[in-house]
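Deliverable D5.2: sample structural annotation.
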Amino acid sequence: MDTINIIVDTTNEYVLDEILELKEINDHCGLTTKKYSLKNEFGVGEVISWNFEGLMVRKREFIFKKPIKFKGFYEIDSLVYSVLLKGEKKLFVPNPKIELIQEEMESCISFINKTNGYIAYPKNITIKEIVIKMSHEFIKKHSLSSSFPIHENYAVENLRENFTNQLDYKTENIIYEIVSDNKSGLLKRLFLESKALELLILQFDNQNKGINNSTTLKKIYLVRDLITNNLHMQYSVNELSKKVFLNEFLLKKEFKKTFGITIFEFALQERMKEAKNLLINNTKPIYEIAELVGYKNPTHFSAAFKKIEKITPKQFRNKEQ
């Protein structure tokens, strides 16, 4: 299927007008809120945009009918922070020739000054993205360029290495606060500014500490997926560390740092979550459910379940029916 090519110039705020239809606009306390829907010929989805004093925050959720490229992306002295909660996108810069991929649950930050190239999204895949654009005025207002080497460290042409980072626990929480927030007017404006700065502080703080968690974090997320996709298995930390080629101490330390709980606590949490789902939604006997969530002994399963839920699996099933 042919790719849709959209020629853009993001010095124009209405860069996406070709594919978006403006549904609602509201100005309140210096905050401009715009709601768009994706035009039917391109797919389904919506965009909400908040804009004030050099800060733009956009929440996007799309499914494109065809692969789509936005060509000629231009920003004038802008710091752009992007988080993909779902989907993937590709960024290509022709000079120097760089092709960068951003995947699900990854963030990237770049300083763009008249950069040419394209951003591409695939077809038939949900794209859920938060984009925060900080203009030269916003950067100057908060003395960001004088405090941090934004231009050197985050220029697109310097991003061959470590373009993206897996979301850590703190960043993920901030992003979900932005996604779920329902404030309006002045409160929304103050909230968005504080969250944008909070995200930058985390980014700069990690860099100052010499932390580059891209490779390690991918291994941590792989461990998470190994646990959630194999709840019938009771992996030891030693087994997990061997599977992802990461030493046990670092695995335990970084897992708790990323998710806020230990590997054991996470595995138990996921087992109990799946057990409750199985108890509610099918009629399998409890000993079978115990095996499906990693307990060969149903008595041990019942004891673990009661410790968490304060009632036995049988009582839970009866209560929910």
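Annotation notes: The chain has a mean pLDDT of 84. The chain has twelve helices and 13 strands.
The annotation will be released with the project's public dataset once the embargo ends.
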